[in-house]
Every structure is written in structure tokens, then in C-alpha cells.
Amino acid sequence: MSRLTDLLRAAKQLDPQLGKDLEDEIQPLQKRLPFGLNFERHSPEAVELAGHKIRKGSKVRILSPRGSTARGDQRLYRVNKVIGDAAEISVLDSSDGEACTVQVDDLILVAEFRDWIYPGLRPDGTVERGGDKPFHTVINGENFHVLEQLTFTHERAVDAIYIDPPYNTGARDWKYNNDYVEGDDLYRHSKWLAFMERRLKLAKRLLKPEDSVLIVTIDEKEYLRLGLLLEQVFDDARIQMVSIAISPPGAKRDAAFRRSDEYAFFVSFGEAAPVPLALAPEWDGAKRTTTMNLRWVSMIRSGTGALRRDRPGMFYPVLLDAVSGALTGVGEVLPLSSQRSDYRSPEGTVAVWPIREDGSEGRWQVGPDTARSLHAAGFMRIGKFNGTSAAISYLKAGEQTKVRAGVFGEVSRSVSGHVEVEGAAATATSRVPTTQWALASHSAADFGSRLLRNLLPERKFPFPKSLYAVEDALRFYVANKPEAVVLDFFAGSGTTAHAVMRLNRQDNGRRQCISVTNNEVSAEEQTRLRKHKLRPGDAQWEQHGICDYITKPRIRAAITGLTPEGDPIKGDYKFVDEFPMGDGFEENAAFFTLTYESPWLVSTDRAFAAIAPMLWLRAGARGRRIDVIKDGWAVADSYGIIKDLDSAAEFIAALQAQDDLRLAYIVTDDEGRYQQMANEIPGVETVRLYEDYLRNCESNGDF
């Protein structure tokens, strides 16, 4: 390369611009590997951002005239100034400097992925049925930029990523630089690899290096290139590919075998490994086995949200016979305003309350109606009675399903009424399956498309995943992580979040899913809308986008048990956990749209409304969100924020009075005062605003 360097130096002396252009083209070639996967990386990816504010200095394009279906002006412009409803713009990097004036409504914001961005979030509503559970979140935005935002809120904090990226079929199923990639594009594979690599590099920063998994599904179009790409990006991980039968009849391929499967790459980090599970007979070919016993768990809640005040409706007496200690019934909820001493148990019984080891009042895992159902089914067990109390345990939903399915063989009832399994029947084979998955539950047509039609009648989405295929893939890695954080940054129809809700229901978990998708309108729908003189950014256009039309309504419907029209969802869930879809889930979800903020406004504390949801996300997306600070500081369920450092004493006292508080945000430009205050809050993570946020933003954009 020394000869080439000399020639470049000479070219710069003769023509500086020519020398720079040659150097820009040669640098990517110098970075190419001598072997392995090589592809073009030097073309910067850009995205049009409909509906976002146009400011002085913004990069923009001019939209096509209303009613036109022709491709618009693809040149990039810089906004010199905004005057009312008009903007003066000039061609970016043009030497002539000629400017023109256009209406702001005719412009669309453009971001190149090498640019620094300063992301915020705009709240778009919630659905709340899960009490104190963490919120699932849906973020409407360009996924590369949302991943950059998540490096501030979730760096090294994600337990599992499940993604179903574009399969690059050539059927206008994805865009690169705002253009659909066609089947005859000679750079189709190179563009797809560049597109994926940028996102995977950011995803790597989010995964827990000590124990996490990345799951990527793909078909035969790109699986070979994807495998090589994963090996290069994640050179410290263990990678395995599983074949999943998703279409038993098979999909027709010209001059080829009918395709009935797709592939899932499992990329494991640190100690991550598939958990042996009790599997149905159709999971064949298991190699590793382990012995599993019927698993009873304490009915007293532990961990977060375990106090009486957290869920007052789960504080009630369980009644035992005063002589034998046998379970005789379940009492009603004791109001929070009442004391245990106010309660009088029926004659001949003893009341057992959910009292924690430290003597404080806790709560049960389930409500009184559920406890009565557990008792009737034999799924509640009373431990040794000491005359005044006894340990109470129960079988969670997953264990109940195994009992009903006959996994443990013959089941009988004990003298006290709980289920028992005896002898050899007391164990079941728990195993890790082979790399060939051929289960009826993984049919994409039956449990992807048809299931989605139950949730969203009359709405269509191309090729949704089987809910149960996603659920099964995740279960092997998060079954023993009841508070796992799961991310899907190609969220599409929202299947991953739906699967996480089902996993939570099966074992009373508190897992949360972050779903990221843009609001892209399908190619066919775009043509129809343009003929009606609509353009990106118009409300009538955006309402047909994937996030607003499919993702958010599906997650809302799954939780509430109601279709977007307000009708109960028809049909039942199948397989591991069968129940009516109309029952919904006891879960919470919050919806957001990514925004692009001014660093100056952020640094001067004038963009707090946009930054506030990110602070809540970083603190665990649980409980109340602090959107406004009136008295210089505020404390919520899991975090606190202080702007007026003169009120530090009151703020620290409020933090110390709060259970399970994770984070304290300190707004100051003074490093010394920040360190002094951080030292006064031991055991709580502190973050300096807005220095830490701005530094994180400016460390990105190098892709």
C-alpha cells in the first residue's frame, strides 16, 4: 500500500478534491478481509423521516407533487433558514451555493447513519392491566436510530434478542436508502449485508455479555451470508442453526424442491445455553436429558412488588383447620386500611397471612379467586402445621399444564387434597431438542396469519410468524429468567411481544419486551394513497403504516382480549397454555414514537419532555413515569430526578424511603457537585444529565 499512498499524495497536490475523492473510495477497500465475507460498506445509508420537524441545518429532500406516483427528487438539501411556512434550501455539498425557497410541507427530513442524532420519545398511549408489572414498550421509529437510543437506556441489559429481518427475496420487501431493493439489483446482497451489519453491531452493545442470546430467523436466500456475517460480528459467541418446519405443504419454488422450512440462528454469549424442558412427544431426537420433579413454589411473593401495599388485592387470609392444619378455605381481601388484628377467622380455623421473613406484610402470588381454584384443583399444598401457621406452596401455570398433559404419569390426591405423583411417575424427562423442529404448532399459516386475523379482523400483514414458534425459541433461553428483557427490532406484527406475554402467564413471570418497528406503508398501499394525493406525514397516510395499523393494535388486542372494533377476540390459544383469547393478559404496554431533538435544547434542559420517557425506560419501565418536575426534584417507583441541587437533602431522603429504587438522575453541568451528590446516595446508580446522554449520542454514528 505504500506505493498507493505516494500516488494519493501526488494526486492531492495536483487536485486536492480529486485526491480526497480517491482516498474516500480506497479506504473501504483497505479494510476488506483477505478471506471471509466481503461486501461494500462505504455507501452511507439514509432514511426519510416523515412527520418530523424541519429546522435550520436539517438535511431534507423535496417530496413529489401530490397525486404523483413518480420518484421524487433524490438530491439532499440543507435548510439554510425557516421563514414561517417556507424554508430556504440549497443542495448539500454543492459548490454553486444556489438556494431556492419551498414550502416546509413539501420537505421531508433525512438522516444519514453517519450523522449524530439526539433521540427522544413521544408518548403515544398505554394499555394497563398488569398492576405493578414492568411495561412492554413499542417504539415507532427507524430501527437503527432506536438501537442507538437504546445504547443509552439498555446497554448490556438485554437477555434475549429475537429478530425476523427482511429475507431479501427481491419482491420489494425492504428498502435501502429509501428505495425498494428489487430482484435484479446486482448489489442486492451487498446492500442487505451492510444493512444488517450496522444493526447487529449496535445490538451487540445491548446484549449481556455474561449470559444472553440473539435469535435470527432467515430463509435460503441469505442464510449462508448471514451465517458468515454473524461469525464476523460476534466472533466471541457460539453459533448454531436450527431448521424449523413452518409450512408443512411447502411453498413452491421454480425448478426446485418445495420449501417447507426456514432457519433460526442461535447466537449464545457467556453462559447462555438452552434450558432442558419437559417436551411433548413430537419433539423427537433429544440427546441430553435431566430428571425433573414436580415443582412446588412458595405462594408468598418475593423480589420486586412483594409488599402488601404493592398489590393490596393479594393480601387475604388462607384458612387452616386449627387442629389438623388442613386447608379449609380462602378468606376475602383485607382492605389496606385494616389491620390483621381486626380480622376474626371462623371458629375452629387459623388464618395464615403472607408474612415475609423480616416480619413485614407481603402479598400472595395470586388473588383469592385464583387461590380457591388452585385449592379445588389440588394445585395448592400446605406444609407442616405448627399450630399457628404453615408454609403454603402452589403449582404455577406451566406445571399445571404438565400435570394435565400427563407428563408426570399417574396423578393422585393426597389426604390433604393436593396432587401427588408417586415412584417412577414422580419424574419426567426434560431435554434439549435436536436442530430439526417439525411441530404442527410452528405452522405460519395456521398460527401466524390465521391467529392474527382473529386479533385484527380485516387487517392483513405478510408472513407473520407462528406465535408458538417464537414462544418456543425464546422459552429455551428465558424459562429460568422470569424478569428477562427481550428485544425485537424488526417487530413487524408484534409476535415477539405476544410470545413474551404468554411465557409470563405460564409461570407468573415479569419479563418485558421492547418492540421496534417503523411505520412503513406497503408498496401497493403507497401507490393507492399517492393517487389520492396523500404523502408521507399526512395523518391519512400514517394510519396505514405497519406500527399504527398492525403492531400497536395487535399488542393492545392481545392484552385487552378485544379487537380494534371492541369485540371479544374469538378462538382459543393452543398447546402449552390453552385458554380463550378473549381473556387477554395481565400485562402493561406503553407506546412511543422516536423523535429527533436539538442538542442545544437538550443541554439547556429545554427538551425534558422528550428525554423523560428514556429515563423511565432505563430505570426498568416500571410504575409511574416522571414527565414533569415542579419543585426541583421528583421520585417515582424505580427512579428519581433532581434539577435543583440545593434541595439535595429532601431528594435523598425521598430516595431512601423508596423500596426497589434503581436510579438517580442528577441534572448539573458541575462535575464536582455531581460527584459529591453521587457519593451521598450509596447503593443507587447515578447518571449525570445531560452530559452522559450527549456523550452517548456522540459516540454513535460511526457505522
Describe this structure in words.
This protein is α+β, with helices and mostly antiparallel strands and 703 residues long. The chain contains 18 helices and 33 strands. Helix 1 packs antiparallel against helix 2 (16-30). The protein starts with a helix and ends in a 6-residue tail after the last helix.
Question: Would you spell out the secondary-structure blueprint of this structure?
Answer:
Elements: H1 2-14, H2 16-30, E1 46-49, E2 59-62, E3 77-83, E4 86-91, E5 99-103, E6 107-112, E7 119-128, E8 135-140, H3 143-153, E9 160-163, E10 171-176, E11 179-182, H4 188-206, E12 211-218, H5 223-233, E13 238-245, E14 261-270, E15 277-278, E16 289-293, E17 297-298, E18 318-321, E19 327-330, E20 349-352, H6 368-377, E21 380-382, E22 392-394, H7 397-404, E23 412-413, E24 419-420, E25 427-431, E26 436-437, H8 444-455, H9 467-478, E27 485-488, H10 495-507, E28 512-517, H11 523-531, H12 539-542, H13 546-560, E29 588-596, H14 599-603, H15 608-618, E30 633-635, E31 639-642, H16 648-656, E32 663-667, H17 671-679, E33 685-689, H18 691-697
Parallel strand pairs: 8-28, 8-29, 9-12, 9-27, 13-26, 27-28, 31-32, 32-33
Antiparallel strand pairs: 1-6, 2-3, 2-6, 3-4, 4-5, 7-29, 10-11, 12-14, 13-14, 15-25, 16-25, 17-22, 18-19, 18-20, 21-22, 23-24, 30-31
